Amino acid sequence: MIERWVKQTCENVDYWDWDGMELVIVSCEEISRYTWYDIFDDERMLPEVNITYENNALAFLSGLPDDSVDLVLTDPAYDSLNKWKGTGTTARMGMGRSGSGSDDRSKFFETISDEDLPDLIQEIYRVLKPERHCYIFCDWPTLLLVHRYAIVEGVFPTVKVNGVLTEPLKPLVWNKVAIGMGYTYRSQYEFVAFLWKGKKRKLNDLSVSDVLPFKRVPPSKASVPTQKPDELFELLVRQSTRDGELVVDPFMGSGTTARACSKLNRDWLGCDIDKRHVGFSNDFAHNGDKQLGLF
Ligand SMILES: C[S@@+](CC[C@H](N)C(=O)[O-])C[C@H]1O[C@@H](n2cnc3c(N)ncnc32)[C@H](O)[C@@H]1O
Fold it and tell me: Which domains does the chain possess?
């Protein structure tokens, strides 16, 4: 069956005769453009909800069915974080409670490369139900990339609102309230790319500003570096979903999305590439805050 699929689908196929048996050869580069689902044409199915799976974000999303998710709320570890890796000044280092100090290089968490961003955006669009929202936390270089891949390249197509073509992206600003480290104007905000699929579903509260002031989680209280405030994620979940709907976060970290959903009676589903991080939201889901001793 795989042989037939390769012959029908791949462009550069070679054949070798191996003791009278025909071997079909295709390069790793070409085959890596496809997923398991392309090859086996399986029915994609939603896995059990309210669980964080250990997986790569792209592989995880590629397993979800089309139009199956009510909100994607995520805070990827993006490439531009790596630029400070050598200096040891980044919040990405293991300075949270589960880390052991800023000199421990092993505490850096994985990032998703800029080259994978187009596929990530494509997959987010595919899994979202029509008229549903997506929030992607990003710094400004990543916001530009999100704009390029999602809007300029048309993955999130423009929509007509009152006869006017509108881009389905609005950058929000998360004001961390506390000032950060730095050698120029000191950092106090992060962007959140707010996107929607098709016609925009109305936000639940239209009085909320596009500047969202929520005090950042101090490293001494964080389970993972760059942990986001629970109240900020709660606001975004409340704005964009209704009771019982499904929220997906493929970069789950400490489980902020899971905690917000659980509090607001939404289902959630996620993954993280780091085994240590996967446990945070699953332990929380099964045991609650107290046993985790987070707060
Ligand atoms: C910025 S943190 C998320 C923090 C989270 N929003 C919170 O409030 O705790 C990014 C997470 O993405 C994970 N990660 C990095 N690369 C990944 C990948 N390719 N697929 C899935 N998870 C990844 C990291 O292990 C880390 O836990």
Answer: 1-42 (no CATH), 44-292 (3.40.50.150)
